Amino acid sequence: MKIQLTRLAHARSGDKGDTANVGLIALQEKFYPVLVREVTADRVKRHFEGICKGEVERFELPNLGALYFLLHQSLGGGGTLSLMTDAQGKTFSTALLRMFIEIPDEEGHNLGLTEKKE
Question: Residue-wise over 67-95: b if at least 16 C-beta within 10 A, else e?
């Protein structure tokens, strides 16, 4: 089953210099293990291909049901140096939520999810 992250989480993002930070928070506690398993630093790096030029770090925050990502070298030098439209990384949360993941159909049904057309 192909699921967009908007069905599982909400997100917030910002910046520190040339590093964008994105917090991905499970909408329900039962979704958190799926996020941990499927939304890896490597997958986030691939999702932001061409934008994130550096390393992606992931931190797990199980007590909050959240994942926290640092996307290094993503903001063209940062807010005061960059000519990017979004030099503070505010749109990175929406961009991450547009990512799709694949989960087994049975797991999706057990979580109360049904597949929606793109």
Answer: bbbbbeebbbebbeebeeebbbbeebbeb
Q: Where are the domains of the chain?
A: 2-110
pLDDT in tens, 82-91: 444 444 456 8
CB contact at 8 A, 72 and 81? no
Which residue do the tokens 């057309």 mark? 117
Q: Which of 74, 69, 91, 56 is nearest to 17 (CA)?
A: 74
pTM, entire model: 0.85
Structure tokens at 65: 């049901």
pLDDT tens figures, 60-81:
999 999 999 999 988 866 555 5
